[in-house]
Amino acid sequence: MIRKIVFIALALFFIGCESKTETPYQKAQKIVETIVSFHENLVRLSIHAIPKGETKSRIIACNVKKKIGIFSHPEDIQAITEKKTTLLHEDNKIDIT
Description:
alpha+beta, two-stranded antiparallel sheet, two-stranded antiparallel ribbon, 3 helices
């Protein structure tokens, strides 16, 4: 399931790169919205990146708008740097990074 979502996200990103009128952030947001529209069981889907001119990773796209711009949490950084999936239980939800 996770690999399928990642593949879809990458495919949509590269397809979206053809558009010259959208910023990378707008493209990323479109990817998130498209994936979430096909998977109604997803509570939150975020894309993290280090914005140009900055040194810390932030959420650059998310289906929960108030999360956009927030710095990445330690488990997000760990998943990225170690290339490992992290799993956290939060209330009655599972956070997979």
